[in-house]
């Protein structure tokens, strides 16, 4: 169905004009030979029905590719069958795999591609590139192709956390891109639970909406040269857990520690007192549980390292790194069922503490984020947009030339104002 609708939207102090060129539902190319009900494992059921939008920027888009894009997407949906289904409620324990399809929207913008990837102040308007999805929408995947004045596009793929973690989503997009170039899609494996876990959700402390608290999103780039300096500083302070790996902490570990410490300091300054604080660091378990073809396993194959700090004196750079490394070494889950039980057990404990502030941190570093080539070359930039929710979230992603880490921070606005002036943090930020 084609629509031509002009809409003005205000993002901060900017007005951007964009036009919807077309909107179409792309269905699987053939009926999927799978059960019409995909029962979600416990770990998928616990994860919220929040969409995770990845934005891939390309400068060399070929305008003749649109029909090829849609055809290859249709072919991939036959294999990734839950993505074309519907979740009838945000807390449903299963997906109706009725091949209803994925929404594909084309939009033209009066702004330029470089406005989004070069100008920091324009980064606040990134949300105008995203599909318009409500938390009550039954759709599990939505796609928006954004055309810019002067050429180039941003391909946005937004996937519900109910059916995919970041690795699954990136694998799906890479497969779609490969099929667009003439390849054949892989056949992924989605684990179905024998028991439905409907109405399972995070505890109120992690899931509630605090209407009076405004949140802000910022992106900060940390060059490898400065992260190496941070590593040296952490090592000089002493790390109680040094193995594995034996060559010291990773970039992600030291940056997680720095941002967590500075964010808690900002919150403490803002309120005037320290609140017990928990760090959630997500860990991809595919290589440990599915050693053969781990990329073929869809869904949420992630567990967490959880460290609760009840005393501000515990939150030092070296101590947080030590706790993270110790937590990773202690992960014992052997299958998806045990991962779900771990999530459930941790959340049941946390739900009893209404004063606890939780910081979710996840890393996409090392994932093949920049290998998504639809025939237009690799993306010049990839961004992740944090869902609009009242949770403290930090996401790490490699920079385009793999010379640093771009961190997307989603924190209370008042905390963010303080954080942006933190000299300890700014010492390691590019520019």
UniProtKB/TrEMBL annotation:
Entry superkingdom: Eukaryota
UniProt keyword list: Acyltransferase, Transferase
InterPro entries xrefs: CAT-like_dom_sf
TM helices/strands, residue ranges: none
Pfam families reported in the protein's UniProt record: Transferase
EC number(s) on file: 2.3.1.107
Record GO terms (molecular function): 17-O-deacetylvindoline O-acetyltransferase activity
Primary enzyme class: transferase
Residue stretches in coiled coil: none
Protein family membership: Belongs to the plant acyltransferase family.
Name the UniProt record assigns to this protein: Deacetylvindoline O-acetyltransferase
């Amino acid at each position: 169905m084609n629509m031509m609708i002009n809409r003005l939207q205000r993002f901060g102090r900017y007005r951007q004009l964009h036009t919807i060129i077309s909107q179409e539902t792309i269905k699987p190319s053939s009926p999927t030979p799978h059960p019409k009900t995909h029962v979600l494992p416990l770990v998928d059921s616990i994860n919220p029905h929040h969409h995770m939008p990845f934005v891939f920027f390309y400068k060399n888009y070929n305008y003749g590719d649109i029909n090829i894009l849609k055809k290859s997407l249709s072919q991939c949906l036959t294999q990734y069958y839950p993505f074309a289904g519907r979740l009838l409620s945000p807390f449903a324990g299963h997906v109706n795999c009725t091949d209803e399809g994925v929404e594909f929207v084309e939009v033209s913008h009066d702004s330029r591609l470089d406005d989004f990837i070069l100008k920091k102040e324009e980064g606040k308007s990134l949300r105008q590139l995203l599909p318009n999805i409500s938390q009550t929408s039954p759709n599990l995947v939505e796609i928006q192709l954004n055309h810019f004045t002067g050429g180039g596009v941003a391909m946005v793929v937004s996937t519900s956390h109910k059916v995919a973690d970041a690795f699954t989503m990136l694998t799906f997009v890479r497969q779609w891109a490969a099929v667009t170039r003439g390849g054949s899609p892989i056949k992924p494996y989605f684990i179905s639970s024998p028991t439905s876990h409907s109405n399972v959700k995070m505890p109120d402390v992690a899931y509630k909406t605090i209407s009076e608290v405004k949140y802000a999103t910022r992106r900060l780039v940390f060059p490898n040269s400065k992260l190496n300096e941070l590593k040296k500083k952490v090592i000089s302070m002493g790390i109680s857990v040094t193995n594995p790996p034996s060559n010291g902490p990773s970039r992600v570990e030291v940056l997680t520690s720095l941002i967590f410490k500075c964010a808690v300091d900002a919150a403490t300054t803002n309120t005037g007192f320290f609140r017990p604080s928990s760090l959630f660091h997500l860990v991809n378990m595919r290589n440990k549980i599915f050693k053969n073809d781990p990329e073929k396993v869809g869904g949420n194959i992630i567990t967490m390292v959880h460290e609760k700090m009840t005393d501000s004196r515990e939150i030092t750079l070296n101590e947080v790194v030590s706790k993270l490394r110790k937590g990773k070494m202690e992960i014992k889950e052997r299958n998806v069922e045990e991962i779900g039980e771990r999530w459930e057990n941790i959340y049941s404990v946390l739900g009893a503490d209404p004063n606890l502030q939780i910081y979710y941190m996840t890393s996409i570093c090392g994932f093949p984020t920049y290998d998504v080539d639809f025939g237009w070359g690799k993306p010049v930039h990839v961004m992740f947009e944090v869902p609009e929710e009242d949770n403290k979230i930090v996401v790490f992603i490699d920079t385009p030339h793999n010379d640093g880490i771009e961190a997307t921070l989603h924190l209370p606005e008042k905390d963010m104002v303080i954080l942006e002036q933190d000299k300890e943090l700014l010492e390691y930020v590019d520019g």
